[in-house]
Structure formats: C-alpha cells, structure tokens
Amino acid sequence: MATLAYTAIRPDGTIVTGRGEAASELALENQLAKERLELVEAKEVGRPARTMHLQRTTGKEKAPRREVADFFFQLGTLLKAGVPMLQALELVADGLGRGSMQTVVRNLAVQIQSGTTLPEAMAQFPGVFPEVVLCLIRVADKTGTLPQVCEELRAYLNWLDKMMGEVKQAMIYPVVLLVVVSLFVVGMFSFVVPQFAKVLKDMSPDKGVNSLPALTRFVLGISDFFVGNIIPIICTVLLVIVLAHELPRRFPKLAIWLDGVKLKLPIFGPLNLMICISRFGQNLATMYRSGMLILESLAMSRELIGNRKLAAALGRVHDGVASGRKIAETMKETDVFPPLVLQMVQTGENTGQLAESLQNVTDYYNDVIPRAIKRVFGILQPLLTFVLIAVVGLVVLSIVLPLTQMMKVTR
Fold first, then answer.
1. CA distance 406 to 203
2. What is the rounded end-to-end Cα distance, in angstroms, of the chain?
C-alpha cells in the first residue's frame, strides 16, 4: 500500500489535489471515480503506508443508535469538506473509542479500499445499518448526494432514538405498575388471606364457613382458588403470552385485527396511533427528501410503521399510487389516518412540497406525544392506586365483618 499524491478534476471542471492510499494508480483511479472525480495525474510520495487489515467480524455486531447517528454526522461533515471517502472513514474510526462501532467502520474502510461499494459494505452489518439506512445510502451512491443523505440520516436516527425512548417510557411505567399490582393481589389472596381464614374457621368450628358473611365467603373462595390452582394459573399465563406472540406471526389476518384493536384501546389507543403516524411521517419525509421514488418510499414506510393495521392500509395506498391515483385520495379511503394527516398530505401534493408537509406532521406529533404520555401517566397512577386501595379494603372488610358479627353474638 502506497501514499499517492494526485490531481483530479470534478464534473464542473474544478481541479482537486490531495493524497490517498492505494495499492496502485488504477486502484486510486477507481476510488476517485466513486467520488465523481476523474484522475489526471498521480505519483507516489513518502514511505509506504501501513496496510490495513480486515478485522474479524461476525456480521451480528450492534451499536447504539446514537453512535450510528454520530458516525453519519462526522462522515457527512468530512465529505462536505472534500475529504475522500476512504480517508474520511479512517478519520472517523480513529476518533471512535474501542468498541463494535470502531470495528465496523474500519472494516468499511478496508472493503472500500478493495473495491466494494459503501452500500455493499454496510449491508454486511444489518445490526448497525438497518434496511432503511441501506436504501438511502444506495440512492445517495447513485446520485452523488452522500453528504446530504448523511445529514438526513443523522437527523433521522436522532429522531428515532428520541421516539423510541419516549415509547419505552410510555410502556415501562404502566407495565411495572401492572406487574406490581398483580403480584400484590396474588400474594394477598395466596398467603395473607389463608392465614386469616384459619383464624376465622377456628373461631366458629361448629357453624363452619357458611355462617360467615357473603363478602367473607367470596374473598375466601378467591383465596382457595389461588392456593389450589397456582400452578395451572402460572401455566395459563405463560401459554397466553406464548400464543399472543406466536399466533399473530402465523395468522396475518389475526395480527391485523389485533393491531386494529390496539389503536382503539382506551387511553393507549390514541397514543399508539400518534406514535405510528409520527413514525410514518418521518420515514416517508426522510426517504422522499433523500431522492427515493415515492413508491419505494411508501413500500419501505409500510415495513417501518410499527402497526400491521396501518401497514395494510399503506399497502393499499401504495397500490393506488402505482395505478396513478393521488396519495391523499387513497389514504382517505383506508379510513385509518387522522384528518390532519390527510389535509397535510393533500396540501403537500398540490404544492409540490410533500416532504415538507410530512415533516410538519411529524413535528406536530413530536410536540403532542410527550404531553399525551404525561396525560396517560396522570390517568394510570390514580387508577392503579384506586385498584390497590379497593383490593386491600375488600380484604380488610371481609375480615372485620365476621369479627363484628361474633362480637354482637357474644353480647
């Protein structure tokens, strides 16, 4: 591997000079051609550069979404400054700390040096560069807009990281509360109530349980059910979890129906719809703005929307657009998209600013979603607190009633 000083020319006639590492002048010419530069002259300078070796990878490497966003930011900045692709990747790799992302970037540099295109090299790391990223990089590689697309990807990945954080926040809190409440109820009826049941039965050995108040008999019946069927209950819960995961995968129509139910759930349904619409708007705006054709953008947005009911609707929109109809017209017929989205898409189509209109929709929902999440928390917290108080009150009342009854009989 040698360091070559070169003179090249851009398509607009601008002369460019620089240095690059390549095995030969022909390899350097191929590297520059990928950057839309035509080699005029090259000569070897300095000492031979150290050879880069392909580091061992499995193809299953993963990296935090924020690190990938920073990678695209640095790469786009260097490419805008006129730094050749290979050198830009090496500089980015040198600036990364030791970890999977640095290994991936160094492998990208080595593969590009050997003649592989950037999309082909990235495709070997699906855990780092998802399909939507690869689609945009392929478009950028064909159109010569890689610096601009890198900036789009940086903004998209930062948005996605923020959105996923809000979704996790929205899901973790109620799930934890529900688990705590469920464990409390099971523990109460499996361990606490049986102890009081023994005391109550000992206090009236002759009359038996039938002499106890109806509420007490009801609570004791629930307790006996939990104690006597704890293993079947656990098995049933596990079976339901497995079926809920597997059945939608095996039966697409059931999956679409279940996802439609999710959109209509009280409290969570509207929030779920807003998150999916925000994801749809951001994905479609990013891809369309980066140069992807509208049909390709719709097809990819369908895979990324995160709800199979909405994905099926987008499939019908895709087919309608493919037959020559307008996007807003076909979206309206699906009867799943909010009026605001339909209005903005129609405005964008009529004015030729579809990407900007979709981005406005995304910005609106990005502002609304955090408030909706807080509103959901505001409803759930007192609701679950009320459930806890009701369960405890029910158990306490069922114990106090027979004691009060016995005191009256004693008098």
1. 9
2. 104
Note the CATH number of domain 65-159: 1.20.81.30
Nearest to 148 by CA among 97, 223, 73: 73
Other Cβ atoms closer than 10 A to 108: 26
**pLDDT tens digits, 113-137:** 888 888 888 998 888 898 888 888 8
Check: CB of residue 287 under 8 Å from CB of residue 136: yes
Domain segments of the chain: what residues? 2-44, 65-159, 163-411
Torsion sign (Cα): 265, 266, 272, 277: positive
CB 159 within 8 A of CB 282: yes
Between CA 156 and CA 68 the distance in angstroms is 11
Question: Which residues neighbour 132 within 8 Å (Cβ) at sequence distance 6 or greater?
Answer: 156, 283, 287, 300, 304
List 21's β-bridge partners, or say none: 3
Alpha-carbon distance 348 to 79, whole Å?
31
CATH superfamily of the 163-411 domain: Type II secretion system (T2SS), domain F (1.20.81.30)
Which pLDDT tens digit goes with each residue over 189-214? 778 788 777 777 666 655 556 667 78
Q: What is the pTM of this model?
A: 0.67
Q: How many angstroms separate the CA atoms of 138 and 292, rounded?
A: 9
